[in-house]
Description:
Blueprint: H1 26-35, H2 42-52, H3 69-76, E1 81-89, E2 94-101, E3 106-114, E4 117-121, E5 125-127, H4 136-140, E6 142-145, H5 148-163, E7 175-178, H6 188-199, E8 213-217, H7 221-230, E9 235-239, H8 245-251, H9 260-274, E10 278-284, H10 292-306, E11 310-316, H11 330-342, E12 346-349, H12 363-367
Parallel strand pairs: 4-7, 7-8, 8-9, 9-10, 10-11, 11-12
Antiparallel strand pairs: 1-2, 2-3, 3-4, 5-6
Helix pairs in contact: 5-6, 7-9, 9-10, 10-11
Amino acid sequence: MSKPLPLVFTAPRRGKPPTHLADLDLEQRKQTVRDAGQPAFRADQLARHYYGGLTRDADQMTDLPRAQRQELVDALLPELLTEVRSIACDAGDTRKTLWRAHDGTLIESVLMRYPDRITLCVSSQAGCGMACPFCATGQGGLQRNLSTAEIVEQVRLAAAAARDGALGEPGRLSNIVFMGMGEPLANYNRVLSAIRQITAPSPAGLGISARSITVSTVGLVPAIDRLTAEKLQVRLAISLHTPDDELRDTLVPINDRWKVDEVLQAARRYADATGRRVSIEYALIRDINDQPWRADLLGQKLKQHLGQLVHVNLIPLNPTPGSQWDASPRDVQDEFVRRVRAQGVACTVRDTRGQEIAAACGQLAAAGA
Length: 369
């Protein structure tokens, strides 16, 4: 019998975001258009502009009657996020944006260009209730869940920015990682709805391949099993950070509910159902979780539970201001990688991005506008 979800999963209520096309099913969209005095097919036209044209600018919607364009946009495509500021680094290849929602909530997204792809790190909540002590977002606590449309809108805005050359040369947004602010699986229904719209073929959705989407979790076992049952081709990433329960109880407090072995067993069920390798996220913290014996134990546990269906993403810690936590020295990092690989488990060090622009999740929002 699965354990009950902890109360921390319930987000505090703030102002409800305006109703948006991305929050509605097809019939609800049509009814909203009818309520505005227009024929139902206008809903499809608006969807084509939003998902296919990446716009909510009424002036660009020349197939709509001029007199009603703005009214229709206001009814189904209200402004959800306004840019507070954007900062760039890595020779223009990384761009972090702080957004303000309708109720003043601040959230972040990070757009990154790599040689073979353009990736968006997207937020699923404002703040986070998981309380991991080394994470800037966790330090701030949970404010509220984001709506489906607020998640989709981050992707739409990033896709338009990439297309319009925000990272230099114009390009196509190809990859999405749910590794921004929040625990995605604690906002399960809205994240799942957003994924379906992100992956639906244009013009019904943004047309990004499910295999190019990664959903990260600290290890909410019942939610992992729900995601397994969906049979999606998204990649699952587990924020493990240590292989032993004693330390993980401190680093990832939800470990009080679901221990390391339970989380890895759920990850194996996901891998078996989808055929996709699971990514293990491991933030390497100096003198905390970087000991050689922990590298050995990590490799052994992953080999036991996941075999070849796993890859370790070692993350050099991006320290937050005033934090006691720091990144491990390079020689310690290299030895950790060597020991994990010696157990027959793939292990690489993630390319660090944006340290000079506070790119760790929650740092920009914590600094405010």
